[in-house]
Description:
Layout: E1 4-5, E2 11-12, H1 40-44, E3 55-59, E4 65-67, E5 72-80, E6 85-92, E7 95-100, E8 108-111, E9 117-127, E10 132-141, E11 149-150, E12 162-164, H2 169-173, E13 193-195, E14 211-214, H3 244-265, E15 275-278, E16 288-290, E17 295-297, E18 299-300, E19 308-309, H4 314-329, E20 336-337, E21 341-343, E22 349-351, H5 358-373, H6 382-385, H7 404-411, H8 415-431, H9 437-450, H10 457-472, H11 477-486
Parallel strand pairs: 4-10, 14-15, 15-17
Antiparallel strand pairs: 1-20, 2-16, 3-5, 5-8, 6-7, 6-9, 9-10, 11-13, 12-13, 16-17, 18-19, 21-22
Helix pairs in contact: 3-4, 4-5, 5-8, 7-8, 8-9, 9-10, 10-11
The structure holds zinc ion.
Amino acid sequence: MHSNKKYFLLWCFFLMPLLLMAFQNCGARGFNGDASTIDWASVYGWDPMFPPDHTIVFVGRTSSFTFYQDLVLNVQFSVSPLDKLQSVTISINGVAQTTLKPEQLSSLNLDFSSLQGTVDVDALATFNDGKFARNRITLELPLNGETAKSDNNCFSSSDYDSCIFYKNPIAQKGAPFSPAISAGTDLSLYQIYGVKLRNLASSTALRNDTFNISVSTGTQANKTQSVDGNSWKLSYANDQAKHFNAQVMAYYWLNQMDEVFTYKMGVFYPHNKSIPIDAYNSSIDNNAYWDGTGILMGFTTIDRSGKSEVALGADVYMHEMGHANLAIASPSTMNFDSNTHTTDQSGNLLCKTAVGCMGAIHEGQADFHAAIMFPENPRIGEHFFNNLDGLPYRNVLANDSVSAAKAYYDNNGEIHGLGSVYASILWMLYTHPQMLKIDFQKMFAEHLTLLTASSTFTTTKGIFLAIDTAKYGGKYQKIITQVYAAKGL
Length: 489
Ligand SMILES: [Zn+2]
């Protein structure tokens, strides 16, 4: 009765032959990603009660996601038409907090000291002509006393256990490197993200009950080889044979992922499963894998004369761990369903049709894991490619208007390229102006358990509709239907 052929799959970061890379123009984004300037109703244009000439804007806040360390936020608003404004109601994570009169718009202090995690701050303006305007900013508040920050004096400060990169060296610098980073490059100007390594099971090894970090090519990280002989700080300029930074990046960011997902989603399926991480494996050429048991990270040679560890990109760890999260939530997703999948002559896995297949869902949701961890900059592969856009066809900021049919055509059904449609669906749902992010985080975690080897994009729509009905009384049915419709699904 079962048509699923058992098949050993390596869930890689990247399709196998670089020659098949299909860099296409991803088209214009439906909106520009700047939440402070989005008029909610005009985004999808369904509600005449929210006309485009009625607006409310958070003054001085231009990013849709802001990592916020200070726990009191001062907010001002700009409203139009001001002479028709009756009041502004502020909600936090969907719960109304306070109502302002027009003369109170110039200053509002919001105290978040009792909150952590993802917080949607929502402003609803009511006008005396019966119309409304809405806007939202999202704050990412520190979890569990997190104190990591960029500090030029990281190496000499006793405040930190290690000095690594925020996301990856290119994101940390805000620019590509010229020449691109190779192992042994002096990165002391950029190795400045000061972190504490929490939850270590041992003071001398990078492991806990969830992750066990090792290296198959290099030297097992140890404190005695650090700059001060007793920390996890090691200069990348001296690291070409040891690959110590690849290991610390693994521990810090994967533990961070465990904490963030456990808090936001209520569950991180690999938690306490002792996942082996090979932070550097010199036989893995321009790639990284989840092999069904652990993560293996290779090297990149793209745009550079030497080699650099893929592991310098936390975004790639997030992607691979996204495969692990789904594989553990629903083990059957690791099977190959020949009804929906095929392979090309190069060995690349393809979906048979534009409605997708588990391979594309696996890849797309893995990209979304990275986007959840770095929502203010959800691109992936910046270090891998030494550019600010990372993998252009997998940039969720650029794919709102790319239909499943177009992605299928452009990528010949290849699962990473077609998977960008699924990452985009998840991102559009998550960032939809009327979706509470704390609700979608829970919905996302639950949907992982309901995916199977034969799932397609179409069946995922049914899964989200069913979870919404059971969990939220169906309040997101319209949004879910509209996002899938935007993909031609
Ligand atoms: Zn992958």
